[in-house]
């Protein structure tokens, strides 16, 4: 039933009240105005950040936050990138995300597929055990995780970051995808099997393509989460050469925060990849992201 | 457990039971995910509980010493920060249930109808959620900057100079100042969940109610609210879980200060282990947090997975 919910076009079927009433619909206009105001309030922090990012240090201390700069200091972006070591940390984050996100999704999909389509005893218990992992605070495990990585000799390395990232991303994805795979009609899988398709083929050629909307949504969620992860990275990474973007932001804002122009420019640049991914996959988002978690 | 019937009192036309061959086929698909999960998540979590019964500085050269329940006794009776952290975590959960959830629902209801700029507005509300919490912390620290920050400058400009505060430096305001930033980032997520839920409101029911002469409020009360019930349950549980997890925002904005006024359980557990080198106390705090989370999550999962036998 989850899959049918996904296929339905986004809320276009909500007409604005009874059409017979000709006079202006003041309720709708009032609603629209209040929503626009809410959005403006939501956008204000970004506007202030941007205006600061293009100001010189002198303009920051003499002009109000909402004033345009006297002198447009676009150089803040290049200088901030330099000061905060953006290229190196960005590359680290990109490397981690590009390996972790697709690999994690594939492993989670494989597990969710057998849990959702093949009936074996206690499959629900297995799903529940995985799901619990996605719902307890990460910080609970950080101390021992540090020791584990230390004894594996993987502390302060990118592989040593990718492994726990995989472990912490998989549970939620299994829980979500399980719902999708379960909704695939049994007859479909049965008939593929009768025609001689292997378990792997059914997974690869039937189930995975059907879960595309869910996979796309999980891809954005996971990319954003991986790019933004802080707690594990701050625990496991020590040398600046291995820093990921969130550590760079934190480092920048505590060490060089007297240069507010550069700081704000740096903050903007640190989010560019997630903004790109978000905008690219946005249309899948509301449809696919959570439909699996919401049962009617 | 050979074929058919053993666990299958379901649809008679498709008898499907537990089958040993099938279970074996599942193994290669499950192994990688399970290994990663067990080794890098489940085991460290259980190990936290084990460590809570030891006294240990965390240094390799030192052996953990078994102390039984002593860490818990210390935590509950002699740790001056634990109760502050627990109280703040609970305040955070309560405020999160009240503010971002209500706001997210209202905005989702508004943005669910066709209107000018709907997609842009949805994107604007969701946008802050895309930014890393640690980045949001840096942004808001700038907004709260006592002299150059936007908030105090704005208050001064509109003549409310006396309202200007050391937003993050004053123990009375700090927790709520940090929380305001979390509302800004959190509402988008709640809105998306409610929008997904609203798609499952059967349009036939809405139309039928309207034909029967129901007004907007009646449609909302009698059709939308009941249909949103499962979504609301998901939103509530996720909000509680995310509130107990709050970490980056606090680290980035106040580090738990001033005077521990923004300390929360997740951060306090971390501080005890890695800054104070008391892994036992850190483990005990983590265990308390784990028990709190499980007490909420397990009933939710039982509910969410109910009737999944097919």
TrEMBL record, chain A:
Cross-referenced PROSITE patterns: ABC_TM1 (PS50928)
Gene3D superfamilies (alphabetical): MetI-like (1.10.3720.10)
Main location: membrane
Domain ABC transmembrane type-1: start-end pairs: 90-281
Signal peptide start and end residues: none
InterPro entries tied to this protein: MetI-like, MetI-like_sf
Membrane topology classification: Multi-pass membrane protein
GO CC terms in record: plasma membrane
Protein's cellular compartments: Cell membrane
Region (Disordered): 1-22
Transmembrane annotation, as ranges: 29-54, 94-118, 125-142, 162-181, 202-221, 263-281
Biological processes annotated in GO: transmembrane transport
Swiss-Prot/TrEMBL keywords: Cell membrane, Membrane, Transmembrane, Transmembrane helix, Transport
UniProt family annotation: Belongs to the binding-protein-dependent transport system permease family.
Full protein name: Carbohydrate ABC transporter permease
Automatic annotation (TrEMBL), chain B:
Compartment(s) where it occurs, according to its Swiss-Prot or TrEMBL record: Cell membrane
TM segment ranges: 26-46, 90-111, 123-143, 173-198, 219-241, 279-305
ABC transmembrane type-1 domain segment(s): 86-302
InterPro entries assigned to the protein according to its UniProt record, in alphabetical order: ABC_transporter_permease (IPR051393), MetI-like (IPR000515), MetI-like_sf (IPR035906)
Membrane topology according to the record: Multi-pass membrane protein
UniProt keyword Transmembrane helix present: yes
UniProt keyword Transmembrane helix, yes or no: yes
Name of the featured protein: Sugar ABC transporter permease
Species annotation: Ruania alkalisoli
